[in-house]
Write a structure and sequence with these properties.
Elements (H helix, E strand, L loop, with lengths): L1 H6 L3 H17 L3 H18 L2 H17 L3 H17 L3 H15 L3 H17 L3 H16 L4 H17 L3 H16 L4 H19 L1
Helix pairs in contact: 2-3, 3-4, 4-5, 5-6, 6-7, 7-8, 7-9, 8-9, 9-10, 9-11
């Protein structure tokens, strides 16, 4: 029932049903489904903008998935926790969860690429410029092996942020212009929002 409400964007009703389901599943020892419900509940928290609750539920889901050795589930929870901590400007924890996600990526090229890019972004915001450059160089090599415009846009955005951190606006503009060309052909508007948001935050920190 929770899935049906979520599919129709009835997030409050969906959350209530997931919480009821978690209670019942725990009583019957269905731990795998408990982990899935906790992750779904965390996704709803994200949709509502409840960052603290989302972090709590992803952390609980992660604990369940670790006990079950669910690598894919663990990877997804670490990725989401990294994003949430990054949004909360807790860059150390964001980096820690992203590094765990990197370890779990295995032969998943997309996951490996995304976590490599995110590593560079987080290190940039931590002002670890040399490490950020190394991370993005690795990411660039991974992106070069794929035909994935989304990964290219993320990388270009990350490179622009790095340039801003180095106070090189000319360099940043070059990457931004390249990203804009790809964004025009992209069917994913969230990429544009993420890219602009990161660059705005980087500029804000630089000025501050």
């Amino acid at each position: 029932i929770g899935d049906l409400y979520a599919a129709r964007s009835y997030f409050r009703q969906s959350a209530e049903h997931y919480r009821d389901a978690i209670t019942l599943l725990r009583k019957t020892g269905q731990n795998e489904l408990v982990g899935d419900c906790l992750e779904s509940l965390a996704n709803i928290n994200v949709n509502f903008g409840y960052s603290a609750q989302a972090i709590t539920n992803y952390t609980r889901a992660l604990a369940v998935k670790e006990r079950l050795n669910d690598t894919k589930g663990m990877l997804q929870c670490h990725v989401m926790l990294s994003k949430l901590y990054f949004s909360d400007k807790n860059y150390e924890l964001a980096l820690s969860h992203n590094r765990e996600a990197q370890k779990l990526a295995g032969k998943d090229w997309l996951a490996e690429t995304n976590t490599a890019i995110q590593d560079g972004v987080i290190l940039t915001f931590l002002n670890n410029i040399n490490e950020a450059e190394a991370a993005l160089k690795k990411a660039e090599a991974l992106v070069g092996k794929q035909n994935n415009p989304s990964s290219s846009i993320k990388l270009l955005s990350a490179m622009a942020n790095l340039c801003l951190a180095k106070k090189d606006k000319t360099c940043a503009k070059g990457y931004v212009d390249s990203a804009k060309v790809l964004l025009r052909g992209s069917q994913n508007p969230e990429l544009a929002v993420d890219a602009l948001s990161q660059m705005a935050r980087s500029e804000e920190r630089r000025v501050g």
